[in-house]
Amino acid sequence: MKRVLMIGLLAAGTILGSGCVVWSLYPWLDEKTTVSQPALAGIWSDTNKNSSAVFTPATNWSDYSIDWHPHFCRPSGKPEKYEASVHDVDGVPLLMVGTWKEDVASPAAMLPAYLLFRIQLTNSSLKLFQLDFATFEKRARKSRLLLAARDPKNKDGPIIVTSLTADMTAFVRRNLKDKTFFSAEPLYSFTKLAGAEGAAGLTNAPAQAAEINGPAQDKPQPSPDPLSTSSTSNTVKPKTQ
Predict the structure, then answer these.
(1) Which of 121, 239, 113, 108 is nearest to 186 (CA)?
(2) DSSP string spanning the chain?
(3) I need a labelling partner for 227 at 20 to 30 A (CA). Which of 54, 111, 136, 198 fits?
(4) What are the domain boundaries of the chain?
């Protein structure tokens, strides 16, 4: 089982990482806490981490696909793909990022993986704060969350939560008011690139696009997935267990 967990982790990609991170096998939150967040759509760049990300909305403003470019400040080459959803839990904005469904279905990635971030978002900046690695295991064991066995020789190895969504949601609610639940410093600090909505091909965004792009213009209907030649959308909500 431990070997299978590590295979799933390695296939999860750069944003999920392989050390000093906390991730889960089931979604941290369910659809009940999702919220609309149109400002997230566009191309974001973190020059300090030499990374960029393209957030493309699905049929609503709470669910997104992410094209992650871990070694480029601007999108270039073949990206890593993730799916994400925006949540509001007791007034705290959160972003849940998960492995792309097609990766999970492939032989190389046997298990899904989900990260949870607290976010600070404006029209031009996005900061992602990860769960505090140093204190998480103690909190989890106190709340009797289920954790995968860790290598005692590797204290910086990932913490993997195996509890179901309902238990993790309750755990998140209990700890949100603690300022040390998430790291004090952001893991990523993104700036939205100028003209990012158009550059990302986001003309197929939901009708609420008028909120950030002004009144909609009469244009031919684009293909359902602006980042793909496919005629079907690749973005789906993660299923809760």
Answers:
(1) 121
(2) -HHHHHHHHHHH-TTT-SSS-EEESS-SS-GGGB---GGG-EEEEETTTTEEEEEEE-SSSSEEEEEEETT-SS--SSPEEEEEEEEEETTEEEEEEEE-HHHHHSTT--S--EEEEEEEE-SSEEEEEEB-HHHHHHHHHHTT--B----TT-TTSPEEE---HHHHHHHHHHHTTSTTSB-SS-SEEEEEPTTHHHHTTGGGS-GGGHHHH-SPP--PPPPS-TT-SSSS----PPPP-
(3) 111
(4) 2-207
Rounded Cα distance between 132 and 144, Å, is: 18
Collect all residues with Cβ–Cβ distance below 8 Å to 217 and sequence separation of at least 6: none
Q: How many CB atoms lie within 10 A of CB 203?
A: 16
Rounded Cα distance between 45 and 241, Å, is 34
* Separation between Cα atoms, residue 79 and residue 66, nearest integer Å: 9
Give me the tens of pLDDT residue by residue for the chain, a chain 241 residues long.
444 344 344 444 556 554 688 999 999 999 999 999 999 999 999 988 888 999 999 877 889 999 988 877 777 778 888 999 999 999 999 999 998 766 544 444 457 889 999 999 999 999 999 999 999 999 999 999 999 988 888 878 889 999 999 999 999 999 999 999 999 999 999 999 976 443 444 444 443 333 333 333 343 343 343 333 333 333 334 445 4
Owner of token pair 């990012």: 196
Structure tokens at 162: 């195996």
